[in-house]
Amino acid sequence: MSKYKLLAVDMDGTLLNSQKKITPRTVAALAELAGRGVYVVTSTGRGRAEINDYPEVIKLMHYGILNSGGLLFDFVRDEPIAIHGVDEPTILKLIDFGLEERAMIHLLGVHKSLARESDIQNMAAFDMAVYHDMFNRVCERCDDFKGYVRAHPGEVIKVNLYHRDTASRDRNLARMRKMNLSISFAEAYNLEASPANITKASGLVELCDHLKIDIAEAVAIGDAHNDKEVLQAAGLGVAMGNASDEIKQLADFVTLDNDHDGVAAAIERLF
After folding, report:
1. What's the chain's Rg over C-alpha atoms?
2. CA dist., res. 174 & res. 163, Å (int)
3. Overall domain count for the chain
4. Which CATH number does the domain housing residue 66 bear?
5. What's the DSSP call for residue 69?
6. Cβ neighbourhood burial of 34 (10 Å; 0-12, 13-18, 19+)
7. Where does residue 76 rank: exposed (0-12), middle (13-18), buried (19+ CB within 10 A)?
């Protein structure tokens, strides 16, 4: 019998294959694990609105670490457990940075996801075409981000900036590093801004405390830069076969890639 009591699994590049689908084998592995009483938890940069396309998985998960640790969510009760939002002056600066670089600005709250209509219809310019259908369906359109932020204090948990190229992203990265933020990225040209010390790892610590589970009893699986801390914090960190070399090197072991049921293979080996 496995000593592990919780599985925290990333979505994009991990649970989802290249077509943004979850295979039947992976769903079956998650269901079997949940049926044995193991907590199956999503650990994702996505917000609540961005995971509604996967009801077959959400129904297996009592809890979610969303918005890169900024939101702990109880799916059964459909309510947040903990919220860690970005402060208003910081959000306004990030909006300015996005506008200056002609980036796609994406604000995430507890239930809402906001972006400009013009950006959603031009997501290929930000190397985000694969997400167009989802954004088109779930995002609330917003052209006045600053007005929204001022009218909804405390509601923005994370700010994503999707850039047009590496140079543009790196200019904003240099600006953001001077601020009190947790910065990560999961796509080619994006930057994810959360409050200082808020990461998927802090979310896992907080959730384990809530469930009275030792973090040594948790397994985390991921593939990207924004999974780095959680793979190191968990009792065992698993890198996907499609992960970057940096992520593979810090993981305890590497499973198959996301187009070959890497999550299911890890579950079958560890649990």
Report:
1. 18
2. 14
3. 2
4. 3.40.50.1000
5. G
6. middle
7. exposed
8-state DSSP, 116: -
Q: Token digits for 200?
A: 């998927």
Side chain identity, residue 269: R
Q: Which tens digits make up the pLDDT trace of 182-210? A: 998 888 899 999 999 999 999 999 999 99
Q: Are residues 93 and 15 in the same domain?
A: no
Look up tokens 């996301």; give the residue.
258
At 267, the pLDDT band (50, 70, 90 cuts) reads very high
Q: How far is CA 141 from CA 114, 118, 144, 159, in A?
A: 6, 9, 9, 15
Q: How many CB atoms lie within 10 A of CB 158?
A: 28
Percent of the chain with pLDDT over 70: 100
Please report the pLDDT score of residue 243 as a whole number: 96
